Protein 1
Amino acid sequence: MSDLNQATLTAGDKSVALPVLKPTLGNDCADISKLTKETGLFTYDSGFTATASCKSAITYIDGDKGVLLYRGYPIEQLAEKSSFIEVAYLLLNGERPGADQLKAFEAELSKEATVDDSINALIGSFGKDAHPMAILAASIAQLSAKYHNSLDLNDAAQRYQAAVRLIAKLPTLAALIYRHGKGLNLNAPDTSLDYVSRFLKQTFESADGKYDLNPNIVKALDVLLILHADHEQNASTSTVRGVGSTGANPYASVAAGVTALWGPAHGGANEAVLKMLEEIGTADKVEDAVAKAKDKNSHFRLMGFGHRVYKNFDPRAKIISVMTQKVLAELGVNDPLLEVAVKLEQAALQDDYFVARKLYPNVDFYSGIIYKALQIPTELFTVMFALGRTPGWVSHWLEQQTDPEMKIVRPRQIYTGSPVRDY
Ligand code: CMC
């Protein structure tokens, strides 16, 4: 924060005073909302690299220092001491739950975990080779159809219930999508289990309903979900808010968030990283891959490297990198791709191209290796990201609904087409 309370912009013979808004943490923001009225000028910021789209009290990132806070709590402390469900409650409500509140929240999630037959029929209608993210987006859109007529967005309790319902149903949808791809029966979640165990059992249980829960796997997955739970105004969350700003229902807004997450520049990177590591194959090919990533003609990027906001280590990547070694050791998995990943990380971190551009490993760099060790297929990785991100999406949607400054998202453009001409 600075002492600056006002910035002045001079446009020709006009001088405009722009109020400077002060966040609790982070960069001050010049408020340009009156600029057009006073000067006729729009501003241009492709990709919103320097533009705040809203005020939010949920998550804070300091990209230069590699800091990530959910509701003020450092991600490292939450990963060590909390659970995904506690984090989801924290994101939704702003405060950590007491023991009774946590119990009640878990009970609500269990109660809402099942889906009806229309979802099974929808998932069953897709080809076995359909990408899981396409099925996930369609399934959530189906929920929007089911709940649309009965949902009153002016009722705070109904809004909250929709948010909880989405968090509750995501693991069920993910499990069903996995089972459909494998040609397994579309089963129901075991609502006597905790959130993560419920997902694992429904996903992997055998025909006679048996699955041995391994506490190491449950814990590893729980931490991975915590690390993905929110990341302020990223592309998918901004999409959820963009759709939410039109008054669309939360299911429709989150379905849009899922499609935004799918792209390889965003959540789809975790799938792309594993494919890249498999293509590199062995540690001796790492140097070639780094050279290719630097060659602008190759259109190849090191997936899992770089971030719009982090110009330092992604704190989530630091946690995952340590966790990967631990989880693989606990599960007795010896994955040669880990050696390729470690060598690639070392090579890139010492390379001038990556150093100069401040490109560090991001959350997706190691997550795929853990998912693979947990037997989750590569094409389901981004669905796992969506499962983790849902509390963030719905928290932002809830926050937006009561924001007195909320307006429909409607950016301007710089028109570069033909001037008016006759037909
Ligand atoms: N490999 C090689 N070069 C890169 C990479 C990379 N992964 N990322 C950025 N660059 C270069 C880029 O070519 C550009 O170079 P130059 O200045 O010479 O033109 C410079 O670094 C800046 O890149 P940018 O594309 O302008 O940066 P951005 O902030 O628009 O993009 C990014 C951020 C994450 C899309 C990008 O770094 C990227 O494509 N990374 C790989 C995909 C990936 O891992 N995505 C997951 C992001 S973390 C999870 C999430 O939040 O979704």
Protein 2
Amino acid sequence: MAFPFQIKSLSDYQQAYKHSVESPEKFWAGIAAHFKWKKKWDKTLEWNFDQPDVKWFVNGKLNITENCLDRHLRMSCDQPAIIWEPNDPEEHHRVLTYNELFFKVNQFANVLKNNGVKKGDRVCIYMGMVPELPVAMLACARVGAIHSVIFGGFSAQSIADRLFDAQAEFIITCDGAYRGAKDIPLKNTIDDALVGCRFVKRVIVLTRTHTPVSMIKGRDVWWEDEIKKVETQGNPPYAAEEMDAEDPLFILYTSGSTGKPKGVVHSSAGYMVYSTYTFVNVFQYEPGDVHFCTADIGWVTGHTYIVYSILCAGGTSLMFEGVPTWPDAGRFWDIVEKHKVNILYTAPTAIRSLMAYGTSPIVGKDLSSLKVLGTVGEPINEEAWRWYHEHIGKGNCPIVDTWWQTETGATMISNMAGVTPAKAGYATLPLPGIQPVLVDEKGVEIEGNDVSGNLCIRFPWPSIIRTTYGDHERCKLNYFTTYPGYYFTGDGCYRDENGFYRITGRVDDVLNVSGHRIGTAEVENAINMHTGVLESAVVGFPHDLKGQGIYAFVILEKMHENQDQTRLDLLQTVTRIIGPIARPDKVQFVTGLPKTRSGKIMRRILRKIAEGDLSNLGDISTLLEPMVVEDIKNGKV
Ligand code: WTA
């Protein structure tokens, strides 16, 4: 399809932006008209941020999969929808055309139906990066079930917490996953998670690694066997369920300031309209382009820019099963050359880790197909930006620095490739429909340029978070009460003299480790579960590759015991409770933590110590035991 809403010049952008702020309803109704609806909406927007209660395209009816698949069949049925590149370069890649993807999604929707999945049911998906993962997601959407994809790196305990929270009765998984040199035993981890989750009725297991797995009678079935049953039924098409615009499409868990991950809920219509709008405009996608987003589908970036937005736009999405450094650090560049990738979208942490190998893995690789580069997930340092620009983009590919969050569903602040200006380290300007505001600690808006503050959004956009699953109050408290009347992002931000935005990082107790959000409270909870631990405090510190590393200060019951072994045991506990992504980089055993007289841990001081800034700790006279700070400084690891 051609994209009638594609912005092609700076003045187009300025005009669209003005229109979107002056008449948001008209603006979004105009965009939404380009999608396939089963019934048109009655009213474009109803909202208040106090409840919060946001509804877009009220009473509209649709199924997002008809937008991702059915409507492309006439024009582009033989065009690749998904190109899949396996972990091992020796294995053949796979291409699913729109026709084939449509067929597979219908087939698997029938599998879901045969297994009792109904509209509104929650289905947990815990798979590696195989094409059956988007098939499973789209099949859920086709039958109207709400999927909750869990990143393959999460532990059994983390899965169990999420299954319980979502009361998910169905699970789709693989025997195992390949990632670099490792085989990851997904089904075994699910089995461990299910020990305490008796409400799970069905586990559908795809074969990928042929790892031995245990299959429980009456509960576990093989994907391949279930497909055969649908084949004997004659592969009937699956009539896409009619969904209300506001029916949830998916739940995606993310870390916040408290110990428990929250299930961010996205709607069907608003998410579809806004994510597609951003995809087409930010990347300046042209029909036929191959778009390679290197994220894992377990995170929001993969949901939005590997699956939903790109398929809604009829694009070609390249998905990669492996890691950038295996079998060697040239893997991304081989993929770009092999599949003639036009748009490469990755994270600063990946760029930094590849930079560390120098330019030899790039030499001799033909990267001339690249037109646009993108980055997401954390602030990009200037050095990484320049390297990406010079060595990958050869100086002539615009870099889009896309700022957004799980809760925002799609990109909020970003330049548009080649259309609006770029500036290293800056997400630059808000997309049409997005009204950023900087506020001070008291919530007073900071106007003008060359100012810093906490980043809020003043007006709803179509893919704003609707609720946190099962706990609406939590959604309100987290995002809408800190600064009444605004959605609060949790990020600090600087607006330069030209009005360009630069995200400076989280201002709450959330870390960003290799682009993954990790709440300090979650890590502390895991550490505190380890035997012999009395108390702990976790902060971030600057890390060359990961952006932020995790630094844990831990008080043990018995300080004199073998600390090296205890440290290793403790890391094992965190890996077991959350997963390897939350494993602290540094653990320092301490005798006390700096606390105020009311018992609150002064994280500011710990952060300074972890950063190595020992000279300027600020006022410590209000501490309960100021001496403890000296001890901690002396024991820094
Ligand atoms: C950070 C990922 C600077 C930010 C899409 C945000 C960024 C958090 C950028 C959301 C960027 C994301 N520049 N910081 N371009 N993109 N962030 O939910 O702190 O995994 O709040 O969503 O990542 O992480 P999440």
